[in-house]
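Supplementary Text 2. Reproducibility record for the structural model of the 326-residue chain.

All settings were left at their defaults, and a single model was retained for analysis rather than an ensemble. We include the record here because the model underlies the residue-level annotations in Supplementary Table 4.
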Amino acid sequence: MKFSAKVFIYLLLLLIVRVSSFAQTPATPPTRVSCPEAAQYYAKDSINIVTFGASTVEGVKGIGFQTMLKNNFMNCYPNKIVDITNHGIGGQTTLQGLLRIDNAIASRTGFIVINMGINDAVAMTMGKGSVAETVANMRALITISLKQKLVPILCTLQFVDDRTIKGYVAVNTNIRNINAAYRKLAAEYKIYLADVNAAMRRDFSLYQDPFHPNARGYRLVSYVIFDTINKAIFDKFLKFTVTQNYPNPAASQTFIDLVLPETDKINVQIYDMMGRLIKTVVNEYLNIGKHTLEINTSNYVPGIYFFKISSDSGQYNATKKFIVAR
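Retained model, structure tokens:
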């Protein structure tokens, strides 16, 4: 079968267009999160989260991030109660949020996710409010949350789609300025920043309208918040854990995982069956988090041993038996 030169060129161009279109298709956020290490060491029985803000928090056209976020936690934190409340009201500014924050967090514990400020950015283009006023309102929201002993998760704001409506370019300028201020607030108060803006960038295929994420966009938002809360859990809510050594029985070496909820001076010692000290593995300050300790057993006589862990504070103690065999 013969093709004319024109037909051949047309087919070649069609193939190039299709390949180019495929290559530029934005990646779909994964449908399932990978579970963080913090999940297996979480110290509490429940995960309580207040979500607070305007329409992005409230959800639009039946789509929101709370159900996705809850599923993420239930998948990774089995046997834990996950309670997420939605305190989003569409169209509200940070000033309006400030008037209702007390009711939203009354008797609540755990975390508060604050995602608010896009309506402030819109109002500024009409001569109402300023970045300084928005920052002052957000500062007050953070302070009130901290007084309630909640852990604030401050979200940066996604851009609005300004490709066809020129007036939205100014809105995005305000959003950039607000986000810069929010990052400074997070650093000042030493709270956690969920950088939604950095994740969504200007990928407007993640939007259902100029302002709000679609299902894929909300899924991405849920992942950003999930990751940020897990960082807070790893920093603040770990339980003291000493794993069984591995491998066990050991031949030439074995390992112990030690998780500390707070910095302390830790002493790890090895004893034989007669109660004789064989070796001091660690006698120093260790910081919060997980530590993997290596024990060289190449010179140990095969048999049964114990490792004992204690802390200077007296809060952390554990003893476990292990075997050396060759």
